[in-house]
Amino acid sequence: MDTVLEVLWMLAEAAGQLLLQPFYYIAIILMMLIYRRQVLLERKLFHVRLHSWGVQTWRTVLGGLLAGLFVSLVSLFTGMTLTVEGIICIWAVTLLLLLFRVRYLCLAYAVGLLGIAQFIINLAPGLQGQGWTAEILRVIRELNIPALLCLVAVLHVAEGFLVRWQGASFAGPLFFEGKRGKLVGGYQLQSLWPVPLFLMIPAHTTGAMLPWTPLFGGEAWQEGFQWIALPIVIGFSEVTTGLLPRAKAKVSSGRLLGYGTIMLVLALLSAWWSPLTIAAALAGIVLHEGLVWLSRFEEQKRSPLFVHPVDGLRVLAVLPGSPAEELGIQAGETIIKVNGTPVATKEELHAGLRMNPAFCKLEVRNLAGESKFLQRAIYAGEHHQLGAILAPDDQAPVAVRMRPIALLHLLRPRREGESFRGGASRSAGRQRGKKLADKPQPPQQELGAETEG
Q1: Is 330 exposed, middle or buried (0-12, 13-18, 19+ CB in 10 A)?
Q2: Of 72, 145, 346, 440, which sits most exposed with the smallest number of CB within 10 A?
Q3: Listed residue (194, 274, 284, 282) closest to 232, CA to CA
Q4: Residues ≥6 apart with Cβ < 8 Å to 72
Q5: How many whole angstroms separate alpha carbon 326 and alpha carbon 328?
Q6: What is the pLDDT of residues 288-326, one digit of tens each?
Q7: Residue 67 contacts by C-beta under 8 Å, 6 or more apart in sequence?
C-alpha cells in the first residue's frame, strides 16, 4: 500500500510539473492557430465555415491525452534517462525548427539533429567551451539518444493510430492549382496533438524499487525511480487530390506505423551497439523526409478526383447539417440531373433548383458509378446549392498554391491571399491555353499550404 501511495504522489508531482511547464500551453496555442487558419481558408474559398476550431482543439487535446497514456505505459518498460536541462534543449531545437517550417514541429527532427550534434561533439572530447556554451555541450553529451529515438518510434506508432482514428475528420477541402494550371479540388488533412508524457527515470530515492529493470538506464534503476513530465507535439499534414480523405488517412496511418516500427528496431540496435546511434539519428530524419517525398510523388502521379466530368458536377464536400447531408450525398459523387434537367455547370444547377423552389429531385452517380435518385423538400433560408460544395471551375475566386508554411504564416494568416488580376494564378495564366486566356477572368487569390509529415 505504501508503494502505491508513493507512486501516486510521484505522479501528482509530475502532473504539477506539466502544468507549470510553458511548452504544453505553447503546443495548444500552435494547434489553435493552425485550426484558426484552416477556418479562414474555408471562409475565403466557400464563404462558409465547415469546421469549428474550438471543437477541433478539444478533440485533439483528448486524442493527445490518450496517446500520452499509451506512450507513458510503454515507457514503464523502456525507461528513460532525461534531465530537465535535456527537456529544455529538445524544446529549444524544436521551436527553432518551427521558425523555418511547421512540419518540422516533430520530435524526429529535433532528436535526429541532437544525435548528429552529439556525434560531432564526441569526435572532439577535449572541446569544453566556456560559460553557457560549456553548459550546452554538457547537456548534449549527456543526452541518451537511443532512448530518445525509442521514444520517437513509440510516438509515431501512437500517431499512426490517431491518424487512423481522427485524421479524416480534420480534412479541409481546398482548391488547388493542378497540372497545366487547371484548378482542381482536394483536401488538406492537418492536425497536431499535444501529448503529455509521464516518463519514469532513475533517481536516488529511499522508497520502493521497481520489480523489473527497464531497458534504458542499466544499474541506475537499483537506486530508485521518479516521474518527470515531458510535453510533446505530434502531428501530420497531407494533401490529396486523387483520394478521398479516409483513404488518404489510412495510407498515411500505415506508413507512420511502419516508420515507428523501423525506428524502434534501430533504437534498440543502437542501444545494444552505440556506433549505430548516428546511423539511427540520420535515419530518423531521412526516413521522415522520405515519407513526405513519397506522398508528394504519388499525388503528382494520381489523376485528380475532384474535377467536373462532362456530364455532371462533382461534389467536393458537404456542409454538416445541410440538405445535401440529409439526402446522403457524399464527397466524390456526381450530380447528374436536377428536377429531370441535366446539369453540367453551376448555372444549370441553380436553374434546375429554381424550376421547383419547394421541392427537388436529384440523380446522383455514386463512387461505384451507379445512379441513385434522391428527393427532398426545400425550405427558405437553406443553402443555394443544398449545402454541396462543388469542385472548382474556371470562375473559382481563390486557389491554393503549395509552399512552405512557417510560424509567421500562422501568426498572420490574414496577410495571405492578396488579390491579383489576370487569371486563376500567375502560372495558370501562362498555361491554360489561348481559349481560356481570351476569356475575362475574375480576380483570384493565392493562399499558402504545405504538405507535412
Answers
A1: middle
A2: 440
A3: 194
A4: 197, 198, 199
A5: 5
A6: 999 999 998 998 888 899 999 999 999 999 988 889 999
A7: 155, 158, 159, 161, 162, 193, 195, 234
CA dihedral 200, 204, 210, 212 (to 10 degrees): 80
Reported as a single tens digit per residue, the pLDDT across 119-147 is 999 998 777 777 888 889 999 999 999 99
Instruction: Please report where in the chains the cell 444549370 appears, as a residue.
Output: 348
Alpha-carbon distance of 110 to 389, in angstroms, equals: 40
Region at 191 (left for phi over 0; alpha for psi -120 to 50; beta for the rest): beta
Rounded to the nearest 5 degrees, what angle is found at the Cα of 271, between the Cα atoms of 270 and 273?
60
Alpha helices in 273-364 (DSSP H): 277-301, 323-327, 346-354
Looking at the chain, the whole-number percentage of residues with pLDDT higher than 70 is: 85
Strands of 419-420's sheet, edge to edge?
A: 225-240, 183-202, 171-177, 398-402, 444-449, 419-420
CA atoms within 13 A on the CB side of 189: 27
Contact 191, 167 (CB under 8 A): yes
C-alpha cell at 316: 467536393
Quickly count: other Cβ atoms within 10 Å of residue 426's Cβ.
13
pLDDT digits (tens, 9 = 90+) for 388-417: 999 988 776 666 665 555 555 555 655 544
Can you tell me the distance from the alpha carbon of 413 to that of 43, in angstroms, rounded to the nearest whole number? 12
Q: Which residue has the higher pLDDT, 236 or 349?
A: 349
